[in-house]
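pls read this stuff:
=====
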Amino acid sequence: MGVEKYPEALEFILHWGEMGTHWGANRSVAQVHALLYLSDQPLDAEAICEALDLARSNVSTALKELQGYGIVRRTHIPGDRRDHFVAETELWDLFMAITAERKRREIDPTISKLGELKERMAANKDLPQHVRDRIGRMHEFISTLTGWYEQVRGLKKSTLIALMKLGAKVARFVPGGKD
């Protein structure tokens, strides 16, 4: 894909790279993702390097990370020995893959640490009550949120989309939810 021929595509790639830095991703990783997302055909690493003017090592690292997230996959083209890459283009699947990986990398270790602290706090009688309460509440909150996430993740895509479109109207189905 000759990105330089399409200013809107280039603008999207640059913006996605910038936003990636705010979301905790490396700019190059986000730009590689954006290029693959926009591409209508699989791209090899050299084509990615050329399109984005990135070093081969940056592209290799980016591709490994994106594959780790499950949002880019390796594919082969008959007659071509090089690996090619394609991005997930179904937005809901993209969102769910990123969410699952972020949960695994960020939330799960936090829940584990909070659980460990909760056990240790039970034995430490010198710990101020407000510290004990706040860590306990944080553990309970994140655990509840994670349980909700796991339940929601198990719903069909069509159900999830319908729930999202309901927005705040879903509160009418919850006792006291209209307040």
About this structure: The CA atoms of residues 25 and 158 lie 29 Å apart. The first strand starts at residue 43 and ends at 44.
